[in-house]
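Journal club side-thread
Mid-discussion, someone asked how the predicted structure for our own chain would compare to the paper's figures. Pasting it here so we can look after the session.
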Amino acid sequence: MNKLRVIFLTAVFASISFAQSPQPALDALPLMPWPASVTLQPGSLPINITFSISLSGAGATDPRVKTQAERIFVRLARQTGIPVRLHFVKPGAGATLSIVVERKDHRPPQCLGDDESYSLQVTSTGARLSADHPLGAIRGMDTFLQLVEQNTGPGVTPGFSAPSVVIRDQPRFPWRGLSLDVSRHFIPVDEVKRTLDGMSAVKLNVLHWHLSDDQGFRVESKRYPRLQRYGSDGLYYTQAQIRNVIAYARDRGIRIVPEFDMPGHATSWLPGYSKLGSRSGSFEIVPGFGILGDLMDPTKEYTYRFLDGFIGEMAHLFPDAYFHIGGDEVNPKQWNDSPRIQAFMRAHHLADAKALQTYFNRRVEKIVARHGKHMVGWDEVLNPGLPKSVVIQSWRGQPSLWQAAREGYQGLLSAGYYLDLMYPASYHYAIDPMKIPPPPPGRHRQQTASSQPAPGTATDLTPQQQRMILGGEAAMWEELAMPENLDAKLWPRLAAIAERLWSPEAITSTAFMYKRLEITNRWLEWLGLTQRSNLELMRQRLAGAMPYQPLDIFASVLEPVKGYSRHAEKYTTSTPLNRLVDSIPPESDAAREFRDEVDRYLAAPKGQRNSETLRKDLAHWAVNTKLVQPVLQNNSLLNENLPVADAIAALCDAGQQALGYLDSGNPPNAGWRQRTLATVNKYVDTRVGDLLIQIAPGVQKLVEAVPSESHP
């Protein structure tokens, strides 16, 4: 173990209790993920037009470090408005930021477990970033950029600066990723690159690129061109584009792991190569969602010859050591109904469909290994006889992750990190690969396997078994996302997941997370992300010639329904995603802040309560419901939301009345509490159309706090 790692590990343990309750000044640092160790010191480093960088050691010759350093100048100019120019100076010449990398990059270029540790010291005269390896320097540069903020406060000289700090940092888990589905709705290259920019900024290091599913096959195959010709609707990445994205990701310290689903979720393979299918006849890609019936045929040698050729081609295209084969949600009906497949199973002593899939997985694993890759599969592939080299990715919960570790398999957690479920950042932030998960919020607990009770905890694992858990991946399935609103589905919640996988386990304060997430959300837009701006444009489009501001205020307290309840409406890949529910973020900051203010109000002693903020908010939203009515009435895409406006008006009235009783101490009129609760309860965790009115729980608390008329 090198000296830098010893220092980092010592700092982690020394700072955990300190990091749990950051000091007020330290609390103000806009860092996400929160580093392993942070020490704030007096003073700050001015950032101005003279900003310069020096590179020394291996950093002077490493192309990734040089490219990332060049991007610092561009990002500083964009973020500050200062005309910062590319200005490299020699080491020792008084650079604003000195970057020292001890060792050269290795070959292959990036691998699981590469050293991402770094140390960063900022003083009033300069900053020094040091790392043993280039990847650590890349991570440290993003931390430095997060520190740069506008000077504020009375008597402060206008401008920008970075506070004086000492940071020593390294990740908790080596695999921190995003599974991005581009099969249901194709995501163009520029949007993928923008996602990579955001991932790098919050220190995620794996893009799990989900490239095939029932609805589309998204990669050019030169060996089997009918795959993209008949399986993509013309929307796919050329191999030149793939190589370009891989290089783009590598410059940002991100590995790309491809996924091609097999033997289920494989409909898009079959229009071009029907012999792969378990049934005869013709095939076509499907616009609908759900678990579909068409499967690859594991009993044909043709299937394995085909996959050998295809996997060999893709293994050459994608340089990463890992190759994902899916393996999830196999509906075995076609296998069970086929006399030919059943005869094969009897001849090979395969008891059931699960055994047949295990047979398939073992054959495919040998092909993947022969082409120099490690196979990754969703947790359904975990069955007796599977080689220990396979990585198990759990979407069904910690139990399967921990069971895989007990059996000697490396594993990844995705359960609880499904961004398409529209859960708040606080829920994702509470999910830890090493802990029993909390239930999902609201009334949607039955809709994810991560809500199932976990038998034991990761502490039941031996230290060696715990090390088998590599980390986790957020998952963004694209049934209800498109390029226009993709960023809003990912950000800023993905930053909270990134922190859970990077930062020390002790960093768990939700309030601290939200405080920094708000700043991070704004900061990410300087990278070119569009999670706020695109939604605003979508709402302006909906408002048309009408004023759009009332629609924005109206939308600010709403969230999309959670879980997969929208999928029951039979959306397809051709359904326009252009309604109000598609143009709002997954989480309402205004509603969350209102609920927090309700809690503070009710927690205060009765004589010290201040309802001014709550009254102001409720009055503002009540007035706006009248202003937004014409907007909703004049657009056929908004008519469905008229009942939502009525519900908000009723909730605001109930909240204002409750505050009147609570502030005055007078008992309510006879029957008021019962009648009002009956109205309010209709909107708590209850969809109105495809929307949730998220001020409803706060209003419910206010009404419940009013003493009944018989018990003043």
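Post-session note: The two ends are 68 Å apart (CA to CA).
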